[in-house]
Amino acid sequence: MDKPQRLRLALPLMLAAPQLLLAPGARAQGSWPSAPIRLVVPFPPGGSSDILGRLVAENLARRLNANIFVDNKPGGTTQIGTELVANAHPDGYTLLLASASSFTALPNLRKLNYGIGSFEIAGGVADYIAVMAVRKTLPIENVKQFVEYARQNPGKLSFGSAGEASAGHVYGLTLARDTGIQVLHVPFKGSVAAVNALVAGEIDFIIDGAVTPMVKADRVRPLATLYSRRHPDLPQVPTLGEAGFEITGTSASGWGLLAPKGTPQVILSRLSDALHQVLEQKDVQDAFVRANSIASWQAPDAFRKALEADRKTYAELLPAIGIRGN
User: How far is 103 from 113, CA to CA, in rounded Å?
Assistant: First the structure.
């Protein structure tokens, strides 16, 4: 074969080579999702975050015509699961149901190998509704009586939480600081254990959404919800504001949907649009209440800005209420 013939045969292959090299990536983005998607939930099974994660996975799967499964990766106050996703391949097949505290409270307590800059944001998902309740044998009917009793008995009232720097811990100490009372914190290995201790009369009060079933069963006495409006399942319980008290708050949704940094924008856009549509479904909003949460869409940029603002809030709040890092 002479040289001109070889060139004529080689030219089509040379022209096609870039397309052949780019085709797998283009197909991966264009046909996404074409494989199962893992949604990492950095909490153990059975809790509010796990329930929320499964609801998100189930309804997103329908919107995206995908197979989405929940992978519980608890530990390190959400650090283990969050870091796992930060280091995952950014192809849209590993996502994170992120706790806002992973990027607001935790960075003020320890050195992390990730930050919000390690992620792309699909959007804010839901707000958390904490419920303040006391043991039935305590002679207290409302928040005003609670504060008066605590002032008359400084350091005598104990409260339980899911552990150091958990939402319940921060709520309890913030309430104490902002109302000028003294209380004793008792950490437990999870919210369920703290709720059980309250029912048994081993502690005096709790501020945690996980206590809701015990309120409905009349096993404990509710005083208030720590949210802008009443708990849909506890309409008779006033908000803390309605009870006449305010404490330092935050502005980000309690949970968000995140992907590793570098995830293609075309995938993020589809994911964000699908999430927004899911959160507008009435059946989803009703189901979220079972996880002590309110469906609360926040656009990606708004969620990122809220997290940054809350991180600065916690930088001042945590040491002020006595929670210090390692």
Answer: 12
Burial class (CB in 10 A: 0-12, 13-18, 19+), 189: exposed
CA 16 centroid distance within chain: 47
Distance CA 95, CA 71 (A): 10
Half-sphere exposure of 131 (CA within 13 A, CB side): 28
Segment-wise mean pLDDT, segments of 10 residues, the chain, 326 residues: 49 44 47 96 86 96 97 90 97 96 92 95 95 96 97 96 87 94 92 93 95 95 94 95 87 88 97 98 93 93 94 92 84
pLDDT given for residue 45 in this prediction: 84
| Sheet strands side by side (includes 220-226) | 184-187, 158-161, 205-207, 130-135, 220-226
Cis peptide before 33 (omega within 30 of 0): yes
Give the per-residue pLDDT at 27: 41
CA distance 298 to 293: 14
Nearest residue to 60 via CA among 118, 120, 103, 123: 123
Q: What pLDDT shows up at residue 17?
A: 45
Q: Would you say the pTM of this structure is higher than 0.90?
A: no
Q: Which residue carries 């709720």 as its tokens?
A: 195
β-strand pairing of 205-207 with 158-161 = parallel
C-beta separation of 28 from 37 below 8 A: no
| pLDDT for the residue 12 | 46
Give the pLDDT score at 249: 75
CB-neighbour burial class of residue 197 (10 A; exposed 0-12, middle 13-18, buried 19+): middle
Output DSSP code: residue 185: E
What's the 3-state SS for 252-283? CCCEEEEEECCCCHHHHHHHHHHHHHHHCCHH
Cα–Cα distances in Å, from 303 out to 24, 32, 56, 75, 254? 32, 24, 17, 24, 10
Integer Cα distance of 216 and 148 in angstroms? 26
